[in-house]
């Protein structure tokens, strides 16, 4: 039971920030846990508890979050397409 005396307590703000770091595309859960000096299992449990930053938990919220994610993705892809169209027009003019 001596190990219980060394159990660290984390406030909710710390947990949410740690979870946010795990969703950074350049980081892994294991890497964040290592950087914070904590057990990786805590981060996985907190990810289930809090979900993605800015998302609500629950079936209805999940569908709404998915629609919002897809809208953002569509906007990004549309913007990328428009940029490519403009680039094609610029390069086409150079060949004439």
Mean pLDDT: 83
Q: Radius of gyration, Cα only, in angstroms?
A: 21 Å
Q: Could you list the spans in which at least 5 consecutive residues all have pLDDT below 50?
A: none
Strand content: under 5%
Please give the domain count: 2
Short description:
The protein has 96 residues and is an all-alpha fold. It has four helices and no strands.
Structural write-up:
The protein has helices at 12-22, 29-36, 40-50, 59-95. The chain has 96 residues and is mainly alpha-helical. It folds into two domains: 9-54; 56-96. The radius of gyration is 21 Å and the shape is elongated. The N and C termini lie far apart (81 Å).
Notable traits:
96 residues; 2 domains; elongated
Per-chain topology:
Layout: H1 12-22, H2 29-36, H3 40-50, H4 59-95
Helix pairs in contact: 1-2, 1-3, 2-3
